[in-house]
Amino acid sequence: MTVAPRHDFAALLRERRIELPPLSIETLQVNITKTCNQACRHCHVDSSPARTEKLSRAGVEKLVEILAAHPQITKLDITGGAPELHPDFDWLVGEAVKLGKHVMVRHNLTVQLDGHPVTKENKEYLPEFYARHKVEVISSLPYYQEFFTDAQRGSGVFVKSIEAMRRLNAVGYGMEGSGLLLNLVYNPVGPYLPASQASLETDYKRELKDKFGLVFNNLFTITNMPIHRFKLHLEKSGQLEAYMDKLLAAFNPAAAEGVMCRSIISVDHNGDLYDCDFNQMLDMPVLSAVEGNIPLSIFNFDGAALMGRHIRFDSHCFGCTAGAGSSCGGAVA
Prior knowledge:
The chain is an alpha/beta fold. 35% of the residues lie in helices and 11% in strands. The protein has helices at residues 9-16, 57-69, 89-98, 111-114, 126-133, 146-153, 157-170, 197-212, 228-236, 240-249, 253-257, 277-281, 303-307, and strands spanning 27-31, 75-79, 102-106, 136-140, 182-186, 218-221, 264-267, 273-274. The chain has an eight-stranded mixed beta sheet. The longest helix has 16 residues, at 197-212.
């Protein structure tokens, strides 16, 4: 990514004398497929019904081997695309649960109703499947009003999302005492920083309960990252420099200390490893420090080497460190 000198994230860390080495490998986050039933404008993965990339069966089996061999990895975070469209998705969830791992799925809600965009495979079984395996469901809902959600994700998405939430609530998701977590994700519609996570969560819970009778557990606010589709939109509208300046002005050292790349390893559909999902989309793999800087993968997974790596930063990292910070689990500071 070509950036103005003032948008050099690594230089800012050096200037502020901030060091951000890895802390753990608590979470293995796997982008299992780029196939999706949607093609959202803000999607940093560029997923769509036309994308066919997916992790091989050998790769899925290797993930299970890694989870079994590394007890420090306590969480499996499965994302996509729509991860449920991978043919081995159900098997992977079941095997990870057998190993005692906490499984999280980035579920776009509408896949329940749409099914597979090519094969037309039905996905209405997902709420019961998730409940049976006690999967934590994390779902994007850009706003609690139809206009703003459809503006970001496509016509008709809001109505389908509300129906899908009803189905999740019906099997216990979001209900107090059920142990079934339904967390929502908020991305701003446009080049703005998210509002306070706590205040937005209060608004979401009130509006969804009063208007639709729906409940959920937590709301995660995530900053739109200036890469891929969203970056292209910013460039076309002449807003990229202003957005980067906004992120820079909101830089928060406390948020930097909590960046998710310090406790997560991201895996792409080829099995290659990255510091985070955003580095994955920018083709910035984790490089071996002892084998000629070759990219590391699940097929040569080395926990000690990963803990000794230097995390790779670039200008998009300002998105994770602006304001209260941003991660796959929402605000960090």
